[in-house]
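user: At home tonight, take the chain set out below, taking as long as you need, and be ready to discuss the fold:
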Amino acid sequence: MPVAAPWLPPQPQVVVAAAAAAAPHVQLATARLPADVNVATFNRHLYQWAATLTTNGRNLPFSLPLKADPREDGFQISLLRVADGGAVVSVADIVASVEASDAGAGNVLFVRFYEGDGAAAVGLGGSKDRPTEQRLQTLLDGLVDVPLIMQTMPDAIKKAVVYAR
């Protein structure tokens, strides 16, 4: 029977909200997928890339902890900070989703950047009184991990396509 160690602090609660495509965001990348790609397999391989970003050694160190979550249509990477009171909050989310093209040209991978629920709580992105576009751009410019994540994504997409054919 496992015994809880009384000297260990309780695990912090992670607060991450799934972003919706209609929410204010910055479009980071778009890729049209070949018609013969199995979307479920493609999504699984891209999620595996996202989940192992911090453990492969190539990308270390990140300045913020990351949390990767699978989604039905892709994955979400949350960049985390500790807010007042000890809650772990997402300051920004990178959401990749495979969606059907409006033009009927097959599936398209969209990679979007969203302001996390905790950005304002930890003083990132500026005041909620500022226009959303300015807050998003300020937040994006201030998070040095986003370019590093995006630099490795093209190779991950290419490999996921190969595995999903």
Notes: The mean pLDDT is 81. The first strand starts at residue 14 and ends at 15. The beta strands are 14-15, 26-32, 66-71, 74-82, 88-100, 107-115.
